[in-house]
Amino acid sequence: MSTARLAWVGAGAGCLVLLALASVAFGNREISLHELIAALAGDANGVGQAAVAARVPRTVLALLVGAALALSGATMQAVTRNPLADPGILGVSSGAALAVVIGIAFFGLSDPYGYIGVATLGAAVAAVFVYAVGSLGRGGATPLKLALAGAATSAALSSLVSAVLLPRVDILTTFQFWQIGGVGGAEWDRIGVVAPFLLAGAVIVVLSGRGLNTLALGDDLAAGLGTQVRRTRLIAALGAVLLCGAATAVAGPIGFVGLVIPHLCRLVVGSDQRWLLPFTAIAGAGLLVAADVLGRVVARPEEIEVGIVTALIGAPFFIWIVRRQKVRAL
User: Fold this and answer.
1) Into how many domains does the chain fold?
2) CB neighbours (10 Å) of residue 33?
3) How far is CA 310 from the centre of its chain?
4) Most CB atoms closer than 10 Å: which of 132, 209, 230, 268?
């Protein structure tokens, strides 16, 4: 079984490389294979070189954000044992977005590290609020109650974002595309700022894999096996919130990546978090890069923001999951 899983991981990594090359090659102007190789080697000049120079940081950002959102979703599902958990559905992305918008509108926030800090704080507050509301009443935090609480919170926070932005035309114009979620306009400076935070969050959740496996057995049995349930859940949730907050700060709220990818990856490598989390990161990066390429190609010479493409993919998948009677908890 480990050999099969390793083969899947290798195949996923290979597909990811091909998607990254496609992301660099396709856009408003297609680049031939010869031009692409020459540009990557630094031997090309002119339009081809300029196109590659603009698309490479965009591709890298899409890889990082896709992996971060997928890891965040997989970890939230494991921590809450809720198959419907996702940064967007649970309102975590909306909390990060609202915090960033408030920081910009009322406090003149412009520092990139400030963006990440307030986005992470907003994501954490939203996550705690949704979990608290979903835990009320009989049965505690059931998947359905968490999904409903998250959907209501996400709608309320999105409305607050609009309420803050609408009277401020200058901010609205600047961040209207950020609200949708996208990786256009990526710059190496922004990537350099956010990459350490995404790396830290990824390390936290991957190292929590063994503890997350025991949480799937139930809190009582996990505690009997020597797992410190609260600490494991808190540390893993911290990593997930950091991933979601940093990704939202740099790319805006992008939904459904953290929902779709973990479910598909479980069908391939199973539920062992030690394999699932790395494979989820690869698949999430691939999905966001593919969605970005699709958005650039189908509407050429215009673009469809990647947040819209992932919503078109993820919404039917979410409905399918909800309609499955047997999917109640992980």
Assistant:
1) 1
2) 9
3) 11
4) 209
Q: How many angstroms separate the CA atoms of 314 and 284, rounded?
A: 12
User: How does DSSP assign 137-178, residue by residue?
Assistant: STTSS-HHHHHHHHHHHHHHHHHHHHHHHTT-HHHHHHHHHH
Name the E strands within the chain. Answer: none
Cβ atoms 106, 165 nearer than 8 A: no
Task: Confirm if 57 and 29 have CB atoms less than 8 A apart.
Answer: no
CATH number for the domain spanning 111: value is 1.10.3470.10
Tell whether 219 is covered by a domain.
yes
Mean pLDDT per 10-residue section of the chain, whose length is 330 residues = 84 93 79 67 62 82 94 90 80 88 84 85 90 79 76 90 80 64 78 92 93 83 80 89 88 85 89 92 94 85 83 79 57
Gap between the Cα atoms of 240 and 75, Å rounded: 6
The rounded distance, in Å, linking the Cα atoms of 7 and 1 is 10
Q: Roughly what angle, to the nearest 10 degrees, separates helices 33-40 and 2-25?
A: 100
Domain limits at 295?
53-323
Question: Whole-structure pTM over 0.85, yes or no?
Answer: yes
Q: Which residue has the tokens 């939904």?
A: 255
Backbone angles phi, psi at 38, to 5 degrees: -65, -40
Cα 56 to chain centroid, rounded: 20
- Residue 150 three-state SS: helix
Q: Is the dihedral of CA 136, 139, 142, 148 positive or negative?
A: negative
CA dist 215 and 252 (Å) reads 31
Q: Which two tokens stand for residue 174?
A: 């600047």
Q: Has residue 111 been placed in a domain? A: yes
Residues 169, 72: Cα–Cα separation, whole Å = 33
